[in-house]
Specification:
Blueprint: H1 53-69, E1 75-80, E2 85-90, E3 97-100, E4 114-116, H2 117-130, H3 140-145, E5 198-203, E6 206-214, E7 218-219, H4 232-240, E8 256-257, E9 260-261, E10 310-315, E11 318-323, H5 343-359, E12 375-380, E13 385-391, H6 397-412, H7 417-423, H8 427-437, H9 449-454, H10 492-506, E14 534-539, E15 542-550, H11 554-565, H12 567-572
Parallel strand pairs: 3-7
Antiparallel strand pairs: 1-2, 1-6, 3-4, 5-6, 8-9, 10-11, 11-13, 12-13, 12-15, 14-15
């Protein structure tokens, strides 16, 4: 059971007097498992809308009313779909801090750290918005399910969650999610959150933002999804979302991810009745937060417009989107023999991957058999972005994550990866890799983000308890001395970005110029991701860059990048003369990471593509080409 499991939301209340930061007037409604009235069958087709100042005010008043009914006080954040903080409200008497606890008894730099409740609320709200779309509605509870050492949490001897490591994305040090910029996407101060109490917000089936609630003093996860908890923060967040509920068809309970349904909420709308007399807001409770909000209530931007920062367009004849004014299509840095990617080749790769996604069967969207929606980055061999495109209505979190995946694959496949890790103070991880695999990080292998993920688990093979940790991970608590693993202390992934990530938490308002130290240049500027979807690119055996894909299922991410860069994928997209006649831009079989055998009867993975992945086709083995 999670924290405060015995505290139940009062189902029906009428308030005549409330403490400071409370009051009266208004109405709400109730539903269960999402709102059937919000089932507009959008899947990306509904017109984009936005939250008005009145909408945000209503959401806050409902949050204050529900929290006051519990006899406590809380902190609430409302964001729009690209993470702009529309309001940050802290009731008088609300806890000012919350303590990070990964629920494994781990030791590490973030475990036990007290952080501002305002930062936690913003990350929770942003997570609800960033993980969702018109085709799926995920919450912070959903996030907690898909990042733990076992999936489903509480079921032992099972592989890790499919988005293991995604919590360390959307950081303020990233060059994708930027603070104090004119447009989004915005950073989330604690990354993506797994602490129940964050939900997406919808209007007529369209995702318009998120709500985050914090007041119980613990910023944590639910380590056991085999039971149902009465979580007060989740109850308040659900109460705040009344009138802006997710479509019932889209909530996580109705979506299968990696073969299992995911949890949206342990509290249902049927348990919640908002009184007609809502609390008034106290203007003094509206809080400013450096880099995020000036303390006012403002309206949200309309997603898909230039004002939101993610604008709709058309590419390769398909509905697509760009990040406004950023990441133009360019060629890579010069390499010996002219091996670098040209701008036209980058354009071909983006088109091919986007077309592949449009053919693919989505993994995290309903209705079933709809097209995948993803974000796609191509980088050069040193991680500089060469081009970006995304499907319309892809979840926003994938923009930052796609670049993390591409950069990680390019970096780990490079000749100087081990030397650069050592120069940056992480030589222990490079040495552990060499000892574990019998090879070095010297460019002799093409290493995908799936393989990086294999090496970043607290157990190897993944999920098999009692085995040693991978070389890029910390050991599970109790298995070795020193620092240990939790979702807040993953190993190399966190250590690389710890300074850029934690600095603004301790000193609000500071905005680092990149997440990693100067030893890495811009190669891992927004960090590194440790779940599938990043594939290195080659010409004549020379590493020339990488492609990163994120948004609609990890096997789909793998396929869109790998197949999009393959000979078959490029040919399908009409680029028959681009890339190698056999390989396209993929690595030769002989150097792929699945040739690395760390232990008897084990090996690293390269990519994993779905069976019969394309809608309207029975084609199989799309990532098996007999390349040599």
């Amino acid at each position: 059971m999670k924290k405060h499991a015995s505290l139940l939301l009062v189902a029906a209340i009428t308030l005549s007097t409330l403490p400071s930061c409370g009051g009266g007037g208004g109405s709400g409604g109730a539903s269960s498992g999402g709102d059937p009235n919000a089932n507009f069958n959008c899947d990306g087709s509904c017109p984009n809308q936005s939250l008005s100042v009145d909408d945000v005010t209503t959401i806050l008043r409902q949050a204050v009313t529900a929290t006051s009914a519990m006899g406590t006080a809380g902190t609430f954040a409302v964001v729009d779909r690209t993470g702009n903080v529309l309001a940050l409200y802290q009731m008088n008497g609300a806890p000012l801090t919350t303590t990070i606890n990964g629920q494994t008894g781990a030791s590490g730099p973030l475990e036990g750290l007290a952080v501002a409740s305002t930062l936690a609320a913003i990350s929770k709200a942003g997570t609800g918005a960033y993980l969702s779309s018109q085709g799926n509605a995920f919450s912070t509870r959903t996030a907690g399910q898909i990042i733990q050492q076992n999936y489903l949490p509480g079921q032992r001897q099972q592989p890790g969650g499919p988005l293991f490591g995604v919590q360390f994305s959307q950081l303020i040090c990233s060059d994708v999610t930027r603070a104090n910029a004119a447009t989004g996407p915005r950073p989330l101060p604690l990354g993506l959150s797994a602490d129940p109490g964050g939900f997406p917000l919808y209007k007529q089936g369209d995702l318009v933002g998120g709500i985050g609630v914090e007041f119980d003093g613990l910023y944590t996860i639910d380590p056991d999804l085999q039971d149902y908890d009465s979580d007060p923060e989740e109850s308040v967040a659900l109460s705040a979302s009344v009138g802006f509920e997710a479509p019932a068809q889209r909530v996580g309970d109705n979506i299968s991810l990696a073969g299992r349904s995911v949890r949206y909420s342990d509290t249902s709308y049927s348990e919640i009745v908002i009184p007609t007399d809502l609390a008034d807001l106290d203007p003094s409770c509206l809080k400013s937060q450096p880099s995020y909000t000036n303390g006012s209530i403002k309206a949200g931007t309309t997603f898909g417009t230039p004002q939101s920062g993610v604008a709709d367009t058309v590419k390769a004849g398909l509905p697509a989107a760009i990040v406004v004014g950023r990441f133009p299509t360019i060629g890579g840095r010069p390499l010996p023999g002219g091996e670098q990617l040209t701008a036209s080749e980058v354009n071909s790769l983006l088109d091919s991957a986007l077309i592949t996604a449009s053919r693919a069967r989505a993994a995290i969207r309903t209705p079933r058999d709809t097209a995948a929606r993803v974000s796609i980055f191509v980088v050069d061999n040193l991680g500089s972005p060469l081009g970006f495109i995304r499907s319309q209505d892809a979840p926003v979190f994938g923009i930052d994550v796609a670049l993390q995946k591409a950069r990680g694959a390019a970096f780990m496949s490079s000749a100087d990866a081990g030397a650069t890790l050592s120069a940056g103070g992480f030589g222990g991880f490079a040495s552990a890799f060499a000892a574990f695999t019998g090879t070095s990080l010297d460019g002799s292998h093409a290493i995908t983000s799936r393989a990086i993920g294999n090496l970043s688990r607290p157990y190897f093979p993944d999920g098999i308890e009692g085995t040693a940790n991978g070389p890029f991970s910390l050991p599970f608590p109790g298995t070795a001395p020193g620092q240990s693993w939790s979702v807040f202390n993953t190993g190399l992934q966190l250590d690389l970005v710890l300074g850029g990530f934690s600095g603004p938490i301790v000193s609000p308002g500071s905005v680092p110029n990149g997440c990693t130290s100067s030893a890495f240049g811009s190669r891992l500027k927004n960090g590194m991701q440790i779940f599938p979807g990043g594939t290195p690119l080659y010409r004549n055996g020379v590493l020339i860059g990488a492609i990163g894909v994120s948004g609609d299922g990890v096997d789909q991410d793998d396929m869109v990048g790998y197949y999009g860069a393959s000979r078959r994928g490029l040919d399908y997209a009409g680029y028959t003369t681009v890339g190698d006649a056999l390989l396209g831009f993929n690595a030769p079989n002989a150097i792929r990471s699945d040739q690395i055998v760390p232990q008897p009867n084990t090996r690293l993975r390269y990519v994993n593509c779905p069976e019969a992945p394309f809608n309207g086709s029975n084609e199989q083995g799309v990532c098996i080409e007999g390349e040599g």
